[in-house]
């Protein structure tokens, strides 16, 4: 049976592990989160990276799912090659914000070379890695309405792109099942639904969940994330209805 590994047990990594560990043989590694049989590894430490390679180089994983941003850790230039030594395939979870906002965003959209992730992610691709670029992640314990309540967003008609954590889990299930490695090196993923912050504000205001806010002008250009390509490779992929999920999140304690 193929064995896989999830590196990083933050919001996304932990939920992917919980959802897929019964169906797949998955090891997990985290700097500080311990669940089930997960192991403590600080991949920002060069000695830890050498230890990881030494332990798994002769018994490599079929695939790695890297959930933490490479650009933010000291060993970022070492990790792409190190991960290649311990796994046949390696996938990094990235962000669609790396693309230029020039209309619709898809895999062919030019990237912003000034983005903080650009340099290291290009090196990761050159090393044979693949990247799943995600739009805004929401789900249990991550409610977009709370972003409003905290003052993180404003009531404008700016388009936003979202994907539910359980849908991301389904995509990663497809990645782990891709034994012939036919998936393209870069894929973007969103729920492919049109939302504006104005509509979300209105929805919550009408239900009395937030106060009434004045509308403001968008602070950036619209850019719809078109994730049709990933659906061609994973034709059974279904995504949750945002409005229904928002109601559920608002009803939960």
Automatic annotation (TrEMBL):
<dbReference type="InterPro" id="IPR036291">
    <property type="entry name" value="NAD(P)-bd_dom_sf"/>
</dbReference>
<protein>
    <submittedName>
        <fullName>Uncharacterized protein</fullName>
    </submittedName>
</protein>
């Amino acid at each position: 049976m193929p064995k896989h590994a999830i590196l990083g047990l933050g919001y996304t990594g932990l939920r992917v592990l919980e959802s897929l560990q019964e169906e797949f043989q998955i090891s997990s590694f985290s700097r500080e989160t311990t669940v089930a049989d997960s192991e403590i590894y600080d991949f920002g430490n060069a000695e830890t990276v050498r230890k990881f390679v030494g332990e798994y180089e002769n018994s490599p994983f079929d695939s790695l799912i890297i959930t933490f941003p490479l650009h933010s850790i000291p060993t970022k230039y070492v990790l792409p090659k190190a991960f290649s030594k311990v796994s046949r395939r390696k996938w990094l979870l990235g962000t669609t914000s790396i693309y230029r906002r020039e209309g619709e965003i898809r895999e062919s959209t030019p990237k912003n070379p000034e983005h903080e992730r650009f340099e290291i992610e290009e090196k990761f691709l050159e090393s044979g890695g693949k990247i799943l670029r995600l739009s805004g992640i929401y789900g249990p314990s991550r409610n977009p309405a709370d972003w409003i309540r905290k003052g993180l967003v404003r009531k404008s008609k700016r388009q936003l792109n979202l994907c539910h954590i359980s849908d991301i889990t389904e995509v990663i299930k497809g990645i782990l099942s891709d034994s012939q490695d036919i998936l393209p090196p870069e894929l973007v993923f969103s729920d492919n639904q049109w939302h504006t912050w104005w509509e979300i504000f209105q929805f919550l205001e009408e239900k009395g969940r937030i106060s009434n806010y004045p509308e403001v002008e968008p602070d950036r250009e619209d850019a719809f994330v078109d994730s049709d390509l990933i659906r061609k490779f994973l034709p059974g992929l279904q995504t949750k209805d945002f409005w229904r999920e928002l109601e559920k999140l608002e009803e939960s304690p």
